[in-house]
């Protein structure tokens, strides 16, 4: 049973002095001078490494160590590129998130929901894989970033616990009718060939009183992401949507499925461009959203990024003393040769003629290539080559398109279970935000 907690914030700033009794006389004011002060002697020991409580949430303590280690995760996502002026604001946001996490864990405990260490470790290992590291290497990486394995495991535990609370307390109250799902399937079939979007989201809740501050916080997140910070990392740390654990990934949606305030903006974003793929903060019901466009395709059409390519790479090394003018001449010669080689079959002859080497890859997925190369290869016919690219250190390269298999890119017809799950998640998410709002309202939070 959930405890009935009333909201109280205890500020330890100043106290109101009691009025003097009526009729009492003021004591003469005493004064002192600097000469009256004794030599400074520290009474007791002071430990500068002592980590004090920053907030107590219904009796559970959040220390500045907890905040520092979560800040380390944010700094790692930004490669440390956060200004000193920005850090206090991020720290405040991190503390808000930790308070929410405490409330979620407390609610799970009050519903007798227990999360085993084995579950947390398995999820930790999956996060390490997302960073392309072994668990041990990921632990070392976190410590180098000023964080710790315990910090991210605590976040994982909170995510798992909250998802189970929602499954037990919220999902049974959500109802999605079969007719609603069939209506969406009919709309998808009718919209075949129209655009749909792979979208990421960060949602920050706001009230009319806090909206201005939340908009400022969202604008700072947008600025960091546009400068190269990880949208996924910010979504995991700050988003209050149910997709936070997935790095904000909302999946493939049509514009009609998005909020009316969000849809017109998402359609103007450009995937693959850090500055043009992320929206400005958007006012939405209940708060502020930041949207990221990860991809674009046509409804029930193939996704070009999933195509499997057969490529030949022709690599031409550059001598160490090559000047810029010489490099330009070599690029022109290299490009002229590849334009007239007669397709993939002529790659070896051209390579031999110009002193280059040939490598083959018959199973490379389009989306695994750098975005600029995807844009070039997407417009090539079989047998055509890209313009030369590379650097002084790596030499010049040309990719020749020898084959393309679009079968892997085909999109299946709308699936009843998938659409049902998406609609169900959306409704659970709305109720979850109200649930957390109620927990905040009833909480006793003592800020130190």
UniProtKB/TrEMBL annotation:
Which residue numbers delimit the PpiC domain?
Answer: 194-295
Could you tell me which PROSITE patterns the record lists for this protein? PPIC_PPIASE_2
Where does the signal sequence lie? 1-19
Report whether Endoplasmic reticulum shows up as a keyword of the record.
no
For this protein, the record's Pfam families field holds: Rotamase, SurA_N
Q: Which domain of life is it from?
A: Bacteria
* Annotated Gene3D superfamilies: 3.10.50.40, Porin chaperone SurA, peptide-binding domain (1.10.4030.10)
Write the record's keywords in alphabetical order, separated by commas.
Answer: Chaperone, Isomerase, Periplasm, Rotamase, Signal
Instruction: Provide a Gene Ontology MF annotation, just one.
Output: peptidyl-prolyl cis-trans isomerase activity
Q: Does the keyword Signal apply?
A: yes
Spell out the protein name for this chain.
Parvulin-like PPIase
Q: Can you name the source organism?
A: Sandarakinorhabdus fusca
